[in-house]
Design brief:
The complex is a heterodimer of chains A (112) and B (111).
Chain A lengths: L3 E4 L2 E4 L5 E7 L5 E7 L6 E6 L6 E2 L6 E3 L9 E3 L8 E8 L6 E3 L3 E5 L1
Parallel strand pairs in A: 2-11
Antiparallel strand pairs in A: 1-3, 3-8, 4-5, 4-9, 5-6, 7-8, 9-10, 9-11
Chain B lengths: L4 E3 L2 E5 L4 E6 L6 E7 L6 E6 L5 E4 L2 E5 L5 E6 L8 E8 L6 E3 L3 E6 L1
Parallel strand pairs in B: 2-11
Antiparallel strand pairs in B: 1-3, 3-8, 4-5, 4-9, 6-7, 7-8, 9-10, 9-11
Classes of the chains: A mainly beta (112), B mainly beta (111).
Chain lengths: 112, 111
């Protein structure tokens, strides 16, 4: 089946530790995105990548880093510099600039 | 970046009732999208609108792309318990990756 997968579904980390969230897609989409979702708010863009080996900062990139070494994969690292990392993180992919984005199931990160 | 103004924030309705929610923006979009998010999951695309004035249906769902290109609404007819969730609107600017989201409408359907 084609789709976007994120793992793990739930993640717990101690404050001060870096953590990497996985996002994989087999839709052959060029563009991939990372969003953060907090209660009662819309999705906020962290980073996006239009092609392999290229990525751009979104609205709230501070404290996060990404890589895009393969078309299928766009991992997000939440660093210790992110002041409020506990949130629900969503990955999405898109084929073409004018088309809709398709979302993964999300990873809920809790930093203790 | 600017987010969209989505209303209402939440709705509590009886099964069988119709539902209406909308999104507005001060900016023009080229594509309007409506997503539904179930608890603990990712948003799932319900309807995509590509032309001003376009009215599109998907089962009991109907959505319209406003003539001014600054607004869109979503109607759900004859609601059922599985309609429960958070509905998001999203606007896409032409030829770029800038997609903006509303804050969501949380729908509760009482049997």
């Amino acid at each position: 089946d084609g789709g976007i997968t994120q793992s793990p579904k739930y993640l717990f980390r101690k404050e001060g530790q870096n953590v990497t969230l996985s996002c994989e897609q087999n839709l052959n989409h060029d563009a991939m995105y990372w969003y953060r979702q907090d209660p009662g708010q819309g999705l906020r863009l962290i980073y996006y990548s239009q092609i392999v080996n290229d990525f751009q900062k979104g609205d709230i990139a501070e404290g996060y880093s990404v890589s895009r070494e393969k078309k299928e994969s766009f991992p997000l690292t939440v660093t210790s510099a992110q002041k409020n990392p506990t949130a629900f993180y969503l990955c999405a992919s898109q084929q073409g600039l004018n088309n809709e984005q398709f979302f993964g199931p999300g990873t809920r990160l809790t930093v203790l | 970046g600017q987010q969209l103004n989505q209303s209402p924030q939440s709705m509590f309705i009886q099964e069988g009732e119709d539902v209406s929610m909308n999104c507005t923006s001060s900016s023009i979009f080229n594509t309007w999208l409506w997503y539904k998010q179930d608890p603990g999951g990712g948003p799932v695309l319900l309807i995509a609108l590509y032309k001003a004035g376009e009215l599109t249906s998907n089962g009991r769902l109907t959505a319209q792309f406003g003539i001014t290109r600054k607004d869109s609404f979503l109607n759900i007819s004859a609601s059922i318990p599985s309609d429960v969730g958070i509905y998001f609107c999203a606007g896409l600017y032409y030829n770029n990756n800038d997609m903006r989201f509303g804050a969501g409408t949380r729908l509760t359907v009482k049997p």
